[in-house]
Amino acid sequence: MQKRFKMLTLGTIAMLSVAGHSATAQQPPARLAQTAPAPKAPAPKASPPANQKANPPTQPSTAEQQPSPKINLPAGAGWGSRCASQSRQSAIECSIEQTLTLSNTGQLLASVVIRVPADTRQPVMMIQVPVGLYLPAGLTLQIDENKPEPLAFQTCDLKGCYGGNSVSPEMLAAMKGGKRFTITFQNLAKENISVPLTLENFADAYQKIQ
Questions:
Q1: What residues make up the domain containing 120?
Q2: In the chain, how many domains are there?
Q3: Beta strands across the sheet bearing 93-101
Q4: Staple 52 to which of 48, 61, 87, 146, CB 3.0 to 4.6 Å?
Q5: Does 36 map to a domain?
Q6: pTM higher than the cut 0.90
Q7: CA 108, CA 102: separation in Å to the nearest integer?
Q8: Phi first, then psi: what are they for 4, rounded to 5°?
Q9: For residue 61, is it within any domain?
Q10: What span, in angstroms and rounded, lies between the C-alpha atoms of 119 and 25?
Q11: What is the pLDDT along the chain (210 residues), one digit of tens a residue?
């Protein structure tokens, strides 16, 4: 009897072990860690409607499109005459001159010299203006409201830029009967600078040297 109980006990333990092992084998495998979802791609930007027009480029203001204003200066004081010779043996040469400068700084604006050479007795004009100009524009000479005449620059130095030419009989007559002789040139910004010289006493001054 006792021997039979031990056999039952051992058989029961064996059955429980087999059942436990079978239960362990039948358990489903542990779930793998879920992979993090991939980030979503950003949504494309909405394109503007087909009928929407792009903003036009900014146009410059009216003030930027306007040309530079003409600079007018007060008239000069008048013409002075002088006569001189280079030596005692050389002939006397006479000239008339008018110079206009800024009163506050003394800067030269324009100087006009008309001389009568002793050998030819034909008047020659030489004009001096400041340095720092737009040289390709040259000079423009105008008597009253007559047609302007161009005059090219010949040379420049530290004191100024120079342009000269002979004075034709027509120009000489116009200066004798005129009231204003205007010299126009351009600065480096291509702005016109007009220097008006008086002709009120030109005829009297020229009569002294001819």
A1: 72-207
A2: 1
A3: 80-84, 93-101, 108-116, 124-129, 161-166, 155-156
A4: 48
A5: no
A6: no
A7: 7
A8: -70, -35
A9: no
A10: 137
A11: 444 444 444 444 444 443 444 434 444 444 434 444 455 555 555 555 544 444 545 544 433 444 444 444 454 569 999 988 877 788 888 999 999 998 888 899 999 999 998 888 899 999 999 999 999 999 999 999 999 999 999 999 999 999 999 999 999 999 999 999 999 999 999 999 999 999 999 999 999 998
Pairwise CA distance, residues 180 & 190, whole Å:
24
DSSP designation for 96:
E
CATH code of the domain covering residue 178: 2.60.40.1880
φ and ψ of 50, to 5 deg: -65, -30
Q: Give the span between the Cα atoms of 160 and 168, in whole angstroms.
A: 25
Instruction: Using the structure block, give the residue that is written with the tokens 């009120």.
Output: 200
From residue 89, give the alpha-carbon distance in Å to each of 34, 52, 76, 116.
Answer: 120, 90, 36, 18
Contacts with 80 (C-beta within 8 Å, 6 or more apart), sequence order: 96, 97, 98, 205
Nearest Cα to Cα of residue 136 among 163, 111, 112:
163
3-state per-residue secondary structure call for 29-77: CCCCCCCCCCCCCCCCCCCCCCCCCCCCCCCCCHHHHCCCCCEECCCCC
Residue 45 lies in a domain: no
With respect to residue 202, please indicate whether it lies within any of the assigned structural domains.
Answer: yes
- Token pair 């013409």: residue: 79
